[in-house]
């Protein structure tokens, strides 16, 4: 009996010891590399291939009166495909067919993601949590989240510190409901404004785009693994924003030097900062699709820049190799091309999946290629702490999503993004005690038209329109009349006469025109989520911008220009407010209206921010991150084109209507006392540039000071000028501020004729001013030797 007791006790202790043993990949005390290696060693080939599949997430939950739970489709995908990621689980919009009713409110979203992760831990062999990726370019694209200005507006702030704060808010709201990976920032240079996704970009300049990209990555990621932080996915790698003819996803024609000098630097900056993920672009470059380009994905991204994260395809871009690009004969060949080029994760689940599995089993793809891709993804999962903290605290959601603090930041970003383009005879700011104000136009009281693409459905009381902002700003004795007048595109319900009547009895007209990226449930969509556009088809929505809505012209559509012309003909003072996703033709307005305020898509607080500017509660200091052309015939019209300088056309000059960096204020600034000092060393130099900015007007204000450089003689052709530094500086009325910048060899480098980075000796001209075509101070800098990087 005693022997039996001893044996039984020993077995119990042995069992307890085995249960207490932690598998190496679950041991958070081990280095991540060891955990990755251990986990991969335990996975089957099917599990490895499945780990690289990122499926459409909004199909993976069910919601009804009984609550929120995982869907049958999700259980089947886990069982048969062994998936490792989901995309846009919490997304809601007309494409996903998720509305305010059948989509997820923030607390429900947290319940859904917790249910998904619980299923992965409890119902799979290895218990690997999913990485949930969410759209987050100007706010988490989910019901209830804060909506900020789109990227083109963010760039117009020229305030990286503010954009970092905004990105931290987006990360906090995304993390709160279970997302751990945010899609953004978009680092495409937008040098083709006919392109439908211009609104998603930070504009035409690589330095400004790079500064904004760094701010987004810092705000998103912080220290990866910290609470309220997510990993960033940089998009779209690379040169997606300059398609031939403006056709979204179209081919790109450029040389290696242009890529290195202009299009790759913003990505390199963000990668070296530690970005966790990069998304390939739909386009091809010099005949090689970006999703199967080993030079881009392996040589440049990983070997030259040291990228340690994972590369993800854009939706269905792997399938595009044997589809639109026709560089692969079938899906299996497309999967082979992509994974061997260095593309790790398939956004869709159909590009890899069975195609990749079959290629591996047939010996066409080495298991080492699959292991390499899986290890990159698993590393990020471990770094995020997903294995230790797969769930979110549902009780904290209300404290983290759409708080008053977040709304205040949204309003501040919107304020700082507004660009004053014209202010004849100081019509602005308007008096709050005007007798009567007429607010006119299709974008004056349409909340969705001011939000941009990649925006979830919004509750009626959440978004502040321009009309609401004006009514909140003026005195109780001011009567504010509103007439829509026309739509953005549809001409079937135009009522210019009523608009004119309202203006005739008003003291001033605020006319709100432009464009729209507001998706609706009548529009049809491609499998990629881009809108399907048919030329000549009757307009069913205002949408003329946003993914898929490329333009042949940049004119105001519908009856907007006739509406504006009729209002100007009344002789009353007219303030034009433009809400739009791309630079539109403002030639007539610039000549005939007294004031123009450009707000891009200003987000949910945009109406209040616009009113703050119109009535003087905020002195505008936004600056254009992209040039506004006079005609599509001028395109491309970006300021930093390669030498030689452009000559004029027969019809008009070659200058844009409004240049890069342009923007007015309610006060004036003077520049003086430029000081340039160069100290050369053996391996580098430091050029200190210092000057004074004085507020000579009658109001406090901010000036965006800009430093441009011209390389006078170089071994390869360089831009006519190039932005190298900027600062948004507050200067009180009558006060002066000293501004200092420093330049080193990194700032003036070029990709030489011998395919090496260097800063060459010789003369450089330094240009200091308020925009690319408003230079106040000019200095010289001389380097006595070459500097190799």
TrEMBL record:
<dbReference type="InterPro" id="IPR001764">
    <property type="entry name" value="Glyco_hydro_3_N"/>
</dbReference>
<dbReference type="InterPro" id="IPR051915">
    <property type="entry name" value="Cellulose_Degrad_GH3"/>
</dbReference>
<dbReference type="InterPro" id="IPR013783">
    <property type="entry name" value="Ig-like_fold"/>
</dbReference>
<dbReference type="Pfam" id="PF14310">
    <property type="entry name" value="Fn3-like"/>
</dbReference>
<dbReference type="InterPro" id="IPR036962">
    <property type="entry name" value="Glyco_hydro_3_N_sf"/>
</dbReference>
<dbReference type="Pfam" id="PF00933">
    <property type="entry name" value="Glyco_hydro_3"/>
</dbReference>
<dbReference type="InterPro" id="IPR017853">
    <property type="entry name" value="GH"/>
</dbReference>
<dbReference type="GO" id="GO:0008422">
    <property type="term" value="F:beta-glucosidase activity"/>
</dbReference>
<protein>
    <submittedName>
        <fullName>Beta-glucosidase</fullName>
    </submittedName>
</protein>
<keyword id="KW-0326">Glycosidase</keyword>
<dbReference type="InterPro" id="IPR019800">
    <property type="entry name" value="Glyco_hydro_3_AS"/>
</dbReference>
<dbReference type="InterPro" id="IPR036881">
    <property type="entry name" value="Glyco_hydro_3_C_sf"/>
</dbReference>
<dbReference type="GO" id="GO:0009251">
    <property type="term" value="P:glucan catabolic process"/>
</dbReference>
<feature type="domain" description="Fibronectin type III-like">
    <location>
        <begin position="703"/>
        <end position="772"/>
    </location>
</feature>
<dbReference type="Pfam" id="PF01915">
    <property type="entry name" value="Glyco_hydro_3_C"/>
</dbReference>
<dbReference type="InterPro" id="IPR026891">
    <property type="entry name" value="Fn3-like"/>
</dbReference>
<dbReference type="InterPro" id="IPR002772">
    <property type="entry name" value="Glyco_hydro_3_C"/>
</dbReference>
<keyword id="KW-0378">Hydrolase</keyword>
<comment type="similarity">
    <text>Belongs to the glycosyl hydrolase 3 family.</text>
</comment>
